[in-house]
Amino acid sequence: MVSQNKAVRKQYPSCTVLIGNYQTCFLAMAIIVNLLRAMCYPEINFQIYHMKNKGVLSLFALSCILAACTAYKKNKAIVKDTRHYMADSSATKETVILFYNLKKSAEKQVLFGHMEDNMNGYSGWTSGTGKSDVYDVTGVYPAMYGFDFGPVASLKRGKYSDEQLKHTHDQVIEAYQRHGVITFSWHCNNPVSKGSFYWKDSPVNAVSEILPGGAYNKVFAESLTKIADFANNAKYKGKLIPIIFRPWHEFDGDWFWWGRSHCSIEEYKALYRYTVTYLRDTMHVTNFLYAWSPDCNFKSRQQYTERYPGNAYVDVLGMDDYSDLKQGKSPDVAASKLQLITNMAAESHKIAAFTETGLENIPQADWYTTMLLKAMKQGHTQLAYVMVWSNRPKSYWTPYKGHPAEADFVAFKNDPLLVFGDKAGDFYKLSGN
User: Fold this and answer.
1) Is residue 326 domain-resident?
2) Are residues 158 and 62 part of one domain?
3) 122 and 23 assigned to the same domain
4) Total number of domains constituting the chain
5) Choosing a second label site near 59 at 20 to 30 A (CA), which of 73, 84, 104, 126?
6) Whether residue 347 lies in the annotated active site
């Protein structure tokens, strides 16, 4: 039956209308078939034909098919048009739809994301189906799940990294099954020193050495290949899972080896571009959206875009901002920066996002509503999502049950601006499918 459907699609492309919009079309087809059967065999008692006016049913069936055809054509046009604005115009249909839906939903709502939400938690858990600190407090899962390619792309293979690779893959599948949006950052260990991603722990210049022509380019390419292998094997029911990949973040600080004091402006741009082109063009990864996010060390558009690699390499414009939302500060500062990003994303037909934020251990009980929520509500910001950092026993960014910020976090969740997993819907489908 599956092979027959494929043959029909190939020979008669318009028939995909009947397959894609199956709920409407199957109803219409059933009505038509039964009408024909009743006309040919009037002696058979079909309950549906107790209705006197068969013409009404015929018109209804026809209208259903016409509506399905219209929806199909509209959605096909959306996918085609959206590709023009993406870093990868050959991305999978589901990845294109994710781009479109994120940009569209940002007009009214903000998805809430939590880094490693189903990977580890405040009480020390590190595995287990269904576990989530966000769920424990709110009764629902986040709409977005954050992961990191550090263990995946590690050049030091061993039992731990192999277990982490499998665990990450399994948790991505779990998040996708909930229709969660998936994002990956990359805390990449220094490819030259093989040391930490933190400059203070491994102060060795690397960017110029890992670019094409550099002595460590092949070493770096090995890590990128591992990421590509993960992406190309991240599948559910045979379909590639779309992933928002956010490499080389917070580059305007000095704490990472790719930071502003450790490479020139052009070297950083070349690093980001090479990462995208190697994955997209050499390794043929087709399920990535590419996010770009400095820290909050900017006050103007010129400063924000100083190291911007260009629209051809970026899908999501973001910002990581912890500093501007610390206790005692005004949310106005963060809000103005989020507005700048919103404006630039709108002009470039990109997605705007608050890619990282939070208040460690949440000592301010009303932080979520009086700081984060206010920052996102001011002005005319249109953010696709906001993501807070991950939870561990000594460092957590969402409250646990009994924490003084628990009630405020629930109030934050219930604000109409925010979307958690219970109200997110399926971001991998267009309406009508």
Assistant:
1) yes
2) no
3) no
4) 2
5) 73
6) no
pTM for the model: 0.86
> How buried is residue 314: exposed, middle or buried, by Cβ count under 10 Å (0-12/13-18/19+)?
buried
Q: How many CB atoms lie within 10 A of CB 255?
A: 13
Region 215-240 average pLDDT: 97
Question: Is 406:414 a contact under the CB 8 Å cutoff?
Answer: no
Same domain, residue pair 335 and 405: yes
> Are 298 and 335 contained in the same domain?
yes
Asked if residue 428 belongs to a domain, the reply is: no
Under a CB-based contact definition with an 8 Å cutoff, are residues 384 and 417 in contact?
Answer: no
Catalytic residue among 43, 116, 209, 356: 356
CA 428 to chain centre: 10
**Catalytic status, residue 222:** no
Cα 58 from Cα 35, distance rounded (Å):
8
- Predicted local confidence at residue 149, as pLDDT: 97
Instruction: Label residue 16 by pLDDT band (50, 70, 90).
Output: very low
Q: Which of 209, 250, 267, 360 is catalytic?
A: 250
Is 7 strand, coil or helix? helix
- Does residue 136 carry a pLDDT above 70? yes
